[in-house]
Amino acid sequence: MANSLSQASETSGAGASKLPAYTESARLRLATGTLLYLAQGLIQGLFMIGIPTWLAANGQSAGAVGAFIAAIGIPWSLKFLTGLFVDRYAYLAMGRRRGWLVGAQMVILIFLLTIALVNPTAEMLLVITSIFLVLSFLTSLQDVALDAMIVDLTPPSELGTVNAFMLAGKSVGLAGGGAVTAYFIEFHGFQLAMLVVALMFLAPAMMAISIRERPGEKLFPWTKGEATPISIEQTSKSWWTVFRETLAVLLKRDPLLIAALCIFYGMHQGILEATLPVFATQEMGWGETRYASMAGVGYLVTAGIGLLIGGWLSDKVGPSIIAQLSAGFASLLIVVLILFQPGPEDGLIFTTWYLTVGVIIFFFYLCMVTLGMRVCKARVAATSYALLMASMAVGMTMGAAAVGVLETWGGYNALFVSAIVTLLLSASTVLGLSRETGGPAMAEPASEDLDTQCHNEMQRS
Q1: Mean pLDDT of the chain
Q2: Which CATH number covers residue 384?
Q3: Is 422 a residue whose pLDDT tops 70?
Q4: For residues 292 and 53, is the Cβ–Cβ distance under 8 A?
């Protein structure tokens, strides 16, 4: 296998072979995941923080904001359909996933410029929802391609660390996308805000077109290079093969438990994402910039802590234990919020609460995505992992859609209690996971390179 890759690299030209490949360096894998998740976070910060806060500050109700978040969650609920195409079709000369990734990034950039031209107002809720539904689909396509590439090309013993770095990058992107959007919308208008986000997205997105998946592949369609043998071997030749192998991966105890974990966590996230901006702007009297800035600081704090100890804890202690502990502590803090009921004069207390809960939930989310990647296989990584993460999006859509009903039943108390219940239900699923899936990471054999391991696994199966 190594000889085949070397020959492919030689045929691609001396100049091309000098450029980096994802499989060649652990540091490059960390840098790639971090920067590309940063780009993704910028867009998600736009429609998860900036726009909901803007809507709430301009008089839209919790139900309306929840409906917006539920709508943009739909493409993430259907990621498995996107994953089918990403697994089935590929321009193999550029790698199994990279063509999809580069294409998605370029269309996102074009669409951001289109949104700036449309320049809707906060009262145009249907138009805004429709526009960001399309942007959400494009972002979910990028996410599917990137996650599949990571599952495909990252050694299992690195997944906790790589996920920590990626989520740190995403946190920085969420902070930037949310806070910058809110600031520019409030003080300089919607149109300029979209142009600034597009400019911020461009720099990290360039990482997608600057690396190869494996040595010897094309950097662009018009440059020298060719498909590597391992990519050809892994690519499914029919739709039935993708379905069959995906079902073989997911219809087992551990993947089914992780799917349930994702659904309940998504419900928790959907409830809080729709509730907290409204609570801050309408109950505490905050403007969109203040709440988005606090959310941005929260993401930066979680990014730093995730880089320092998040990946290490997940790999060394095991994601199951960390998930249970983080869910328990986060639930206690939400109980404190219910009992205390902060008002306009308690800004510092609410900020402290928000930042603390954000850090704890970050650990839970890190454990969830690490568990999902552990049970997926490289050959159908896009479809199988997308199905697991789509179950989280299904839960988020359900949770956000229920906000209006919960608000009518019991106001903020009902909303916060529901967030606690769904988080604890999510954490309870890890009790049934095997030690291999939920325990500490096992080191990979030093004698085998990444592609050799993939090849041997495929031969055994």
Answers
A1: 81
A2: 1.20.1250.20
A3: yes
A4: yes
